[in-house]
Specification:
By secondary structure, this protein is an alpha/beta fold. The strands form three sheets. Strands 11-10-9-12-13-15-14 form a seven-stranded mixed sheet, sandwiched between helices. Strands 1-8-3-6 form a four-stranded antiparallel sheet. A four-stranded antiparallel sheet has the order 2-7-4-5, with no helix packed on it. Helix 6 runs parallel beside helix 8 and helix 12 runs parallel beside helix 13. It is globular.
Amino acid sequence: MISSDPTQQTGFALLNELADSEIAWLRAEGETLYCDRGTVLVKEGSRVESLYLVLSGVLSVTIGGPGGKEIAKLGPGQVVGEMSFLEDRPASATVQALEGSEVLAMTRTIVETKLRHDTAFSAHFYRGLATVTSRRLRNVVGQLGRWLESEPIADPDELARWSEVARRTQELKQQIVAAGKSAEEATDGLDLADPLRVFSAELDRAIGADSPETVDSREELGARVQRELLPYFLKARTPSQLYSMPRGYPGDFRATEMIQAGKPDGEAPLGPILDRAFLALPVMTALRASRTLLQKELRRAAENREGDTLRITAVASAPATELRGLVAAKGSHIEATVIEFDDEALSWMRAAHRGSRLRLELESLVDLALGQRRAGEEGQDFAYSLLLPAFSDRFAIGLLNYLHSLLRPGGWACVGFLHPSNPDRAFLDHILGWKITHRDEGEMNTLFRHSAFGSACERFEAEEQGIFYLAACQKA
């Protein structure tokens, strides 16, 4: 049984509720618009005549008129104008392009006509918009959560459980403050790696996926812990990048590059200390080890094609240093392509890998999620992606279908995923708002069976902690 992860961010929430034929109708009837940087799609106080789906780029949402406060960034797969569409009232915020962006504009008249005459579409569409608004509201409520002292808990059992989390949170907070003072005094400073690792594991036991608490209790308690700790972690470079999601989606290429480099930085004196501790968490260590696993798979693919040209495509795996290394080592025997949905990632790679023999292609994230291909690569021997954790099951299958379409018969696909045993999952979810899907081997096998591959994975490879895995499957 394929299910959706209810903790997913608002991206793709509307599309997730629509049938493939209904998405095809939207794309056929909607108008694809290219927006230059600074283009205003929605103006605060004005009537919104269209609903927009972000295809590429990044949009900024601000309130308070010109020079107002930014409250969100929207990336590919997210919806703009849903509240105005539902209520038929002036927009409560201004939305404009932060860079060259592409959106699908669906006019109110066309959509409302479809809603009146197609009851199935109407049910799916309104459920999707309800999910979008519900998740955005939940995020806002989480940000407004208050700590135990300002909102007492009446239930004695609940108070006892929550008080232990409160105690551990205050203990870590005191250690963080002490480390900052130590650094200010130019002493050696305190190492926060062990305290943070212990706290993160305890937080996962208290409000993680296997916690006895209800989903609402986890969200409320997580918001309370976030309020206490987030201001400190925003001084550290890597957690700040993950939390802010400047590209409008989790795990952007710059965050990936920071994690891979493993070089602590941030606002002195405390930022670098916290960044060092964060980068030492088991999940960060596992993500760094992912490149070693990929290098091993690439070498395996090269050995299987010894003497022949090896065609490899990396999909949404920037900065793709493992592929560049293989190209440098094997030279003309490798034809390598990188397909990315983020134009800034491609621009960065063009500059960073100038002179390399990598072919760079741009593809819409929506097309990747739906398994639809515009980039012309095919007949590949090996295709891989690290994007899977960003998708719910439906779109994970779409990505697998996309990889399948790239391969020649007998070619191999490889995807990375995070295992539910990740001890830092609750910290990522609740403190940094970095909500990504975790899956075990059985769930990965189910995804592959439901995809164009039609069979379970042929093998799994894991780094030594068993947090990050690669799943490999051959095209029949």
